[in-house]
Specification:
The protein is an alpha/beta fold and about 425 residues long. It has 15 helices and 17 strands. Bound molecules: NADP nicotinamide-adenine-dinucleotide phosphate.
């Protein structure tokens, strides 16, 4: 019998709606993976209009999260209201009642995190906040769990997608700040009021949280030296490029002389460094420690879907602890099977050595066509010493089985020297 935990979501904005959506859509998958049911029983938002109602089943609806926490017998609360007040009071209320809380609220955690951590240590309710820093990047869990035995020396983070997008546009296309900001807004990477991002406050909130976790330092984000990107011009970026550097809005937390140095400001970093390759709306956190060497986590920093994914991951982890269930690593293994290689679908690079005689290429393309493989490009290279002409082909997507059969036939052709060489092409990477 699968145990069922009651979940309430407070705040149905960008992240809240995505969380509700993923909880409802992936209900079965979560049961299979986590061995526990996360039953969304209540939601709270001042405006549960018809669009929001349409996404829900028969959950109880509240206009204020405090009432939901008071009246529902929740096991888990998701706080996605944002800001310090009333979010802070609602989290306190829940933790005091023994309800476990998941939040993405970086501002609140940066300003009052230690009081919540303390309460969570003392009280019944536990607090998780993976979504507060780095969206889909599991940086909190990495520092708290995976690297718990590692003494970190420094953390460098590109942890604000808006400013990274703006700086990338300015560096790559010479756009002025205002134009780049306009484009970021248009693409949904900047909010209507981008002050917190552009001035570096959002990064300072996140660095405060990371510094506290990694180095145990309890500071206010106001104490973090913070400088935004408004002073950066295309000319400065070009100067940096000529010197072999990129400019990033970097959050830095590092040990120095028995102290911890925490800052956020535009920074020149070597163009060849891994962090310099983090462009557009992407985030990355680079960690250094004596036993660790260096390690970097990279991914989409914000946005409803990736932030909701981190929220759900926290819910699953809390639920597993609460019910002593073990997440199934080999979930649904009896239904999931390995794809036979011949059924693989891929594009291919193909290199043949053909005798320089009319009709050879036509015979090759006829064989490929018969196996339903269409050619994307053909390049004929100069004749080699053995009078064979190298021909390089790339194909559109084709089945591996068909490709292998075609290659077998092609290699039997009299006019083909050497065994054809082929390499699979993988196109599924996001590119700038
Ligand atoms: N958006 C992102 O990509 C992202 C990424 C990482 C972390 N986060 C964090 O996630 C949190 C939520 O962000 P968001 O972008 O989803 O914010 P949002 O779109 O502004 O949504 C917040 C929602 O909470 C509602 N609300 C206000 N007071 C409430 C109350 N007392 N009870 C219940 N609901 C209440 C708001 O209603 P009204 O609008 O009517 O006031 C609004 O619908 C924030 O802490 C943010 O920093 C966001």
């Amino acid at each position: 019998m699968v145990k069922k935990l009651k979940v309430g979501v407070a705040g149905l904005g960008t992240v809240g709606l995505q969380t509700v959506c993923q909880l409802l859509k992936n209900r079965e998958q979560i049961i299979q993976k986590a061995g526990v049911e996360l039953a969304l029983t209540a939601v709270a938002d001042p405006q549960i209009d018809s669009d929001r109602k349409a996404m829900l089943d028969n959950q109880s609806c509240y206009s204020d999260a405090a009432d939901m926490v008071e009246q529902e017998e929740l096991d888990l609360l998701v706080e996605l209201i944002g800001g310090v007040d009333p979010a802070g009071k609602i989290i306190h209320q829940a933790l005091n009642r023994g309800i476990d809380v998941v939040t993405a609220n970086k501002e609140l955690l940066a300003k009052q995190g230690s009081s919540f951590f303390e309460l969570s240590r003392k009280g019944e309710g536990r607090l998780r906040f993976e979504a507060a820093v780095g969206g889909s990047i599991p940086i909190i869990r990495t520092i708290r769990e995976a690297l718990v035995g590692v003494e970190l020396d420094s953390i460098y983070g590109i942890i604000n997608g808006t400013t990274n997008y703006i700086l990338s546009c300015m560096a790559d296309r010479g756009l002025e700040f205002d134009k780049a900001l306009q484009e970021a807004r248009h693409k949904g990477f900047a909010e209507a009021d981008p002050t917190a991002d552009v001035e570096g406050f959002d990064s300072a909130h996140k660095m405060t949280i990371l510094a506290e976790l990694a180095f145990g330092i309890n500071i206010s984000p106001d104490a973090v030296y913070t400088e935004g990107i408004k002073g950066i011009t295309p000319m400065i970026l070009e100067d940096a490029r000529q010197l072999g550097y990129s400019i990033k809005l970097l959050g830095i937390a590092k040990k120095f002389n028995h102290r911890v140095d925490v800052r956020v400001h535009p920074t020149l970093i070597p163009q060849k460094s891994a962090l310099a390759a983090v462009t557009g709306e992407y985030n990355a956190v680079y960690l250094k420690g004596s036993q660790l060497g260096s390690s970097m986590l990279y991914g989409k920093g914000a946005g409803g879907p990736s932030t909701a994914t981190a929220v759900i991951s926290d819910l699953v982890s809390l639920a597993a602890q609460k019910t002593n269930s073990t997440p199934a690593v080999y979930y649904s293994w009896e239904k999931t099977r390995l794809l036979p290689t011949e059924q693989l679908v891929s594009c291919y690079y193909l290199r043949l050595s053909a005798v320089d005689r009319p009709g050879v290429l036509a015979r090759v393309t006829e064989i490929l066509g018969r196996h339903h493989i269409s050619i994307e490009t053909v390049i004929q290279r100069g004749r080699s010493a053995d009078r064979l002409v190298p021909v390089v082909l790339t194909t559109h997507e084709a089945r591996e089985g068909a490709m292998q059969a075609a290659l077998e036939e092609i290699s039997q052709l009299e006019d083909i020297g050497q065994t054809p060489k082929f390499v699979r092409i993988e196109e599924g990477f996001e590119q700038e």
